[in-house]
Structures are given as structure tokens and as C-alpha cells.
Amino acid sequence: MTSTSNWGMVIVGGLLSATLSFSHVVFHPGLVFVSYLGTLPLFLIGLGVGPYPLYGAAIFASSLVFMVEGLFSGGEFLILSALGPIFLVNRVLLHKTKANKTYWYPASYLLRDLTLASTLVMALSLGFYFYFTFGETPSSFIAKFLKAFDPEGTMKGAEPVLLTLFPFLPGFLAFSWSLMMLINGALAQGLLVRFHRNLRTSPSLQDLLAPKYLSFFLGLSFFLAFFGVEILGVIGKNFTVIFLFSFFLVGLGQSHVWIHKTSFPIFVLTLFYFCLMVLIWPVFIVCLIGILKPWLDKTFPTK
Fold it and tell me: What fold is seen in the domain 1-192?
């Protein structure tokens, strides 16, 4: 690909990424869900062309967001929407060649690196959480929030729900970041594979394994969530969300292995994802499967 094509891709990809990210601010508030696709063009460039055009597009997009929305939004985009694809694409494209055969970076290592990146986002989210809630109780903070965003009091009934979810706010932010990185990356890879423009083969979800030490950190987070007081309790609750998400992905891969062995895998897979989206308890079962996967592999080998 020529240098001119690369520069054109940098400009178009950066412009599209920035436009998607602040579409709900500039165009219409209802486009907030469209803004979640802001990293998709960056993943398309990184996974389809390479890391260097991705660097240029990410810097260009961050500069545009900075000029349109200001310093804070520009910094937020750079940290959460630009550095995320840069880091993950860099890991995804790692490979080595032996005897004319290419060995790509394993899916389990990608899960480890995504979890690491999520913990950094979590630390940033916790910092903002403690900064904005310093000297205030959750109830008083929520009351101020509702007064500012709902002066007519139409959301008064939501206060008990918000009070319950409030300690988990940093965890949900880090979880949503991880989820959108995963969705946009997978969507970009799927589109590139469809048009034969992908640089690497698609990682297999079925081969996922969580690092052994992650179980220890999950147990520690559970302990802090239930027995930790004040700051320690908040930290435990939020890190539990992140670590459970990692085991959920492992359990999802194991579930795919079992489902593909059924007589009607497409039907069962559709029903499985329908239950995950509509109900809550199947999510925890999938997480448990992910936690128990090392034992399941030894007791019920699939190969």
C-alpha cells in the first residue's frame, strides 16, 4: 500500500472515529450508543493495515476531539478510545514464524492483556470516584446528581436503585470499556475477514484460559467486597466485576465447545445467547464454568 493511501486512511479513519465518538454531543443526544463505535475505525485500520497507520489515525482523532470538545474530552478520548486499540492491536499482531508456519499471539494471552488494561481503567475510574465523592455520602451525592439532571423530580423513584448500584460505578465503567473494546475489535476482525483484508487469523474463543493467579485475585476481591469497610469494600466490589468478566469470557468459550457438540448447535447457541441477554442468573453460571474450566478440562477432556 502506498504512502498516499496510508495518509488518506489516517485522515479518513481518524475523522470517522472522532465523529462517531462525539456524535451524541454535536448532533443529537440520542446518538450516544453510536458513539460506542468510535474505536471501530481504529481497529479496522490496525487489524487491516498495521500499527503505524493506527498511531496516526488515533493521534488525529484525539486532536479533533480536543478541538471540538475541549481538553478533558480530548484527554478522555486519548486514554480510553485511542490507547486501548493501540495496545490491543499491538498484542494481537504479535507472532513468530517457524518452518514457514506463523504462530499468532494466543487468545489466552490476549485475555490476560485485556484484563490488565481493564485494571488500569479501573484504577483511573476509582481515582475519579473517590475524588468526586470525597466528603460526601452516596445518598447525598445521588441527591445532587438527580437535582442537577432531573430538576422536576421525575426520577425520584430511581434513587434506591442508584444507591445500590453506586458503589459499583467504577467497575461498570471499566467493564463497559472492556466490552466495547472486545465488541469493536471482534466486529472489525469479522469485517476484515469477510473481505479478505485481515492481517492475522481470528483468535478462537474456545481456546481461552485465564491465568492461574487470576483466581487468587478474584477470591481476594470477593473477600474485600463482603468484609472490607469503606474504601476497601468499594475496591473489592469493583475489581470483582472486572475479574468476573474475564472468567465469563472463558466460560463463554467452554460453553461454545459444548454447544457445538449438540445435534442443533445453531438453535442451541441462539437460545443460549437469548437467555444471557434476557435473564441474569445464566451469566453467573457461565462465570462459574470459567472459574472451574481447569478442573473441567482434566475431568471431562474435550479433545
Answer: Arp2/3 complex 21 kDa subunit ARPC3 (1.10.1760)
